Fold these 2 entries.
Entry 1:
Amino acid sequence: MKILCIGRNYGEHAKELKNPLPPEPVVFLKPDSALLRNNDPFYLPDFANLFHHEVELVIKINRLGKNIEPQFAPRYYNELALGVDFTARDLQDELRGKGLPWEKCKAFDGSAVISSFVSIDDLPDLNNINFKLLVNGELRQKGNSKDMLFDVNQIIAHVSKYFTLKIGDLIYTGTPAGVGAVSIGDRLQGFIEDQCFFDFLVK
Ligand code: ZN
């Protein structure tokens, strides 16, 4: 499986990092070795100094597809999870400054936290989902899927022009404002509406 990620998909987050709003989805990939499951701890790597949390809604692909039209995209997923797209922000700034690819700052081991999944049928409206991240019990990020610049169906249409989507592929749909650093000892808890989806420690 592969992990597709969308960058700058919430206007307020693009602003906080001083990035322009993208005219089309910003896409990058992570390998399956990036996955961090089952509330396992995130071990801070030693190759950078500033690791940011980015809480994101995550869609799981359940059918093989290519060149999917937006109106047919809902046939290609039926489960949602909550994840964290961990980012080595200092390294990202360095790589971007040199015009180099992002893999080292975005796709390292443990950089794709994933919760358990819920059926989308159990949610009232995929385009109106509240989610949030608490760090040590304090609210750090909160978002609503209605604020995505590109919604899930538009994302699927876009990425499937370039990449064949396969069963089990994950799409991280971008983070709202409030990204910030994590430190050893922090406890991260993620919620969709009032339900806790992940709860893990930084070590
Ligand atoms: Zn992200």
Note: Residues 14 and 20 are 6 Å apart (CA to CA).
Entry 2:
Amino acid sequence: MADAGKKKSKEIASPKGTRDILDEEYYSFQGFFEKAQEVAVYYGFKPIDTPVLEHAELFESGIGRGTDIVDKEMYTLRTRGGDHLALRPEHTAPLLRAYIEHGMQNLPQPVLYYQYGPIFRHDSPQRGRYRQFWQFDMDSLGSDKSILDAMIIKMGISILEEAGAQNLSVDINSIGDRECRGAYIKELTNYYKKHLGSLSAVDRERLKTNPLRILDSKDPKTMEVNAAAPDSISYLCAACKKHFKEVLEFLEEMGVGYNINKNLVRGLSYYSRTVFEIVEERGNEDQAPLALAGGGRYDYLARQIGGKRDVPAVGISIGVDRIVASPWYKKLSPRIIKKPKIYFIQLGAEAKLKSLNIIEILRKAHIPIAQSLSRETLSSQLAIAEKLSIPYAIIFGVKEAIDNSVIVRDMGSRSQETVKLGKLLQHLKELK
Ligand code: AMP
């Protein structure tokens, strides 16, 4: 019975579709967030951080039933107190909840916010698709002006380009407002009813819950039906037509390339008027363009989540995981990462004892260093300094510890100089 006592060793791993982000990858994310914030702050956006957990109802009424996100992908939980909560599957409904909760409608409009953090969707994990992933969002709340749609799209493009993306284009569509969308959806529903036999089972079901969603179906049979489906732009009322025309004019004026994609409706049902995706054209016929960001206008979402009035708004979500994993990503370096100018070497017990004091003097003077305080020998520490190509070393031995001095060594020429501690900062400043 040798096997009876053997327990299958428990696998130690993060949950499927999630991962640890560390070291260089962490800095890739951090560098991206710093660049994105720089652009957002430049345009007058303020930061907000909403909770990772919200009432599930916020998304059920906001994103809407009949969407994959709410029907299949939302992580929900029941608390001991009986609350029904969800891990946020997007940032927009929480932002609008915060806007209403804090009475931001009383501020001068629009209010502009950026936010970033993890998003959770129970999707099937694959390359570029995770169950916990990061989005950077920018939103303008409280104005229906078309220049804001264009500004948000342009800001998204600027951030992506500064991160190294090339060959970007904007897929754009307008799905109308209360005035015109009803007539369009009626027409679309009639069309699909005529082609019911050619729709997939999922899409037949969507016809009852959310017919617009059939337009972005990935099912080959449905896609054939979609090719001749009525398009929303032909049904726009005068006000929506004007709004859409203005957005396109702003884009043209800025030289932003766009394709009007009549099948673009996006996976969340709160949108009105402008919907868009920023895609990377991959130049290979076999590869579908990769969506790096998406967004649109959501003028009616405020009421959908229980607000008393409409809050016209427009926003964008940038998918960060795909950007930092792209071959073109520029590896934006976070500001806290400084190239070490000096390698700090300590030798002997007396020097080790005082070495943290010297490091603190250097840190307060903003002089970037590297060190390996656990090492003992000169050769092992010098080898590291050489490997890291650090231009100077400070050698702090027993004699120096007694004399209150250090040796400053030029790692290139190997010349050395003894410098009193009191003069060290001045001396280091004068080094090239
Ligand atoms: P969405 O909120 O679905 O419009 O997504 C906006 C952006 O987030 C997309 O363009 C993707 O870049 C990114 N994204 C969406 N879902 C995932 C996922 N499961 N894993 C990684 N990135 C995602």
Note: The chain has three domains: 19-174+239-324, 181-235, 342-430.
